[in-house]
Every structure is written in C-alpha cells, then in structure tokens.
C-alpha cells in the first residue's frame, strides 16, 4: 500500500520561501513518477512539478519555473518542493502524487506534468498561504 505524507506548509509573506516534504512508503513500482499538485479554492487541481524516480530531469508548470525546485532523496524516501519568491497566487493546498512510469517516461528518464486523473496515489495535502 503506497502512502504519501506531506509536511512543511505554512504561512509566509510574498517573496518568502517554504520547503515542502513528502514521505513515501510502500512503493512496489521499479520506476515511477512523482509530482506536486496544488489546488486553490474554487480552482482545478493543477500539476506544478514532476520528477522521475531515477535520474535528475524535472518538469515544471510555466507559472512556477525559476521559482520552484522539485527534488528527491531516494535514501530517505522523500520528495521535496523548494518554493522561493512566493506570490499570493501560490496560495493553495499542495499535494504530492505518485504513479508508475510509462514506457516513454522510462526511455526519456523524465516525467511530464500530467493531469490529476493519471495519478492513483495521493497524500492528504499541506496548506500554503502567501500574504501580500
């Protein structure tokens, strides 16, 4: 049973930074994609960053490029999202998600930003609030 547990959310002023963590357990896939999503009140849940289980290639939503960095520590079974230069529009519930890698993901060693419907495993979310 895959379990994902997020932590690290909080309230910051615009321009500040936060680092989210996602503890991962129970994964039986040999190769998989991990992503961070966010959902603001009244809006759809959107993918903001993605990373493959091996290698270093990452993918980002245009709105966070240059400000957010996704990374993983396989030894600690933890996924991270470093968020810098935060803006009020980054305010949302942030979720980590996981799915098995496709053949394309495996060949490219990279996971794209995907729809929420592609992911079977989710954490409970952590709230990020950015004030102006």
Plain-language structure description:
- The protein has about 130 residues and is mainly beta.
- It has one helix at about 105-110, and strands at about 5, 10-15, 20-25, 30-40, 45-50, 60, 70-75, 80-85, 90-100, 120, 125-130.
- The protein is built from one helix and eleven strands.
- A hairpin with a 5-residue loop joins strand 5 and strand 6.
Brief rundown of the structure:
This protein has 132 residues and is mainly beta. It is 5% helix and 48% strand.
List the helices and strands and how they pair.
Elements: E1 3-7, E2 10-13, E3 18-25, E4 32-39, E5 46-52, E6 58-60, E7 68-73, E8 78-83, E9 92-100, H1 103-108, E10 121-122, E11 126-131
Parallel strand pairs: 2-11
Antiparallel strand pairs: 1-3, 3-8, 4-5, 4-9, 5-6, 7-8, 9-10, 9-11
Q: Structural class per helix/strand content?
A: mainly beta
Are there runs of 5+ residues with pLDDT below 50, and where? none
Radius of gyration: 14 Å
Mean pLDDT: 96
> Main β-sheet: number of strands, strand sense, barrel status?
7 strands, mixed
The level of helicity is under 10%
H and E string: EEEEEEEEEHEE
Q: What's the number of helices? A: 1
For the record, give the distance between the C-alpha atoms at the N and C termini, rounded to a whole number.
Answer: 40 Å
Strand content: over 45%
The geometry reads as globular
What is the number of E strands?
11
Keywords:
132 residues, mainly beta, 4-stranded antiparallel beta sheet, 48% strand, globular
């Amino acid at each position: 049973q895959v379990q994902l547990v997020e932590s690290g959310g909080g309230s910051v002023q615009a321009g500040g930074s936060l680092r989210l963590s996602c503890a991962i357990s129970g994964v039986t896939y040999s190769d998989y994609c991990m992503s961070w999503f966010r959902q603001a009140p009244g809006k759809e849940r959107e993918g903001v960053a993605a990373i493959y289980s091996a290698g270093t290639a990452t993918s980002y939503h245009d709105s966070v490029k240059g400000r957010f960095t996704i990374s993983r520590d396989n030894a600690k079974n933890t996924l991270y999202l470093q968020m810098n230069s935060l803006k009020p529009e980054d305010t949302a519930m942030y979720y980590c998600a996981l799915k098995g890698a496709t053949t394309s993901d495996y060949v490219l060693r990279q996971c794209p930003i995907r729809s929420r419907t592609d992911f079977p495993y989710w954490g409970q979310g952590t709230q990020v609030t950015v004030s102006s």
